[in-house]
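Let's practice the habit of predicting before peeking. Look at the sequence and jot down your guess about where helices and strands might fall. Then scroll down.
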Amino acid sequence: MITLYGFAISNYYNKVKLALLEKGIPFEESLVMTHSKDEAVLSASPLAKVPFIRTAQGSLCESQVILDYLEAIQPSPALLPADPFAAAKVHELISFIELHLELVARELYGQAFFGGTVSESTKERVRKTLLKNIAAFKRLASFAPYAAGASFTQADCSAWASLPLIAMSCKSVLGEDLLMAGGIDWKPYVKLIGERPSAVKVAADRKAAQGQMAALKHA
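Done guessing? Here is the structure:
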């Protein structure tokens, strides 16, 4: 059986968890935080990032590598189109979400979610980059009704897990939801995905984990 390592607040953990649930692949979960110095973690995820998985054949890290592995071992239900070009377009969307939107917005997370402070120069740089990248993303994403078109795909696992964080961090730190300002009406889309049984499960577990972390913080 596959074991998924990480924590339920991580958007990349939830990306993989959503895919596992959508595909109906049995799995177990094991709590691991980032930056672990445990050799058992480093042997599976050398940068101590989450998520990673362990399988009968060995371990895999990096969320997209994991999703593509899951697609290969259990092609149905498919989270990638059979047509190679259409599948590449799904991967293209994921790259834009994660490299050009989420990774840029991540610089705001320290202040938005963890009580830190972001410099004014960082805020301005992030704002400028996100405005450009969101306009580019809008040219690629269809949201008709799913990120890549008529079918739920891997792109939705990524978008559902990350778009709210991007929007919330921008609103909190920059004073404006740059996704909405850029014409990405993400809330109805996230609500649509959130009604899927897999997403209901992921969201409930995420909420429970957030409550546990808040309790520990104030203990």
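How did you do? The chain has two domains: 2-73, 84-217.
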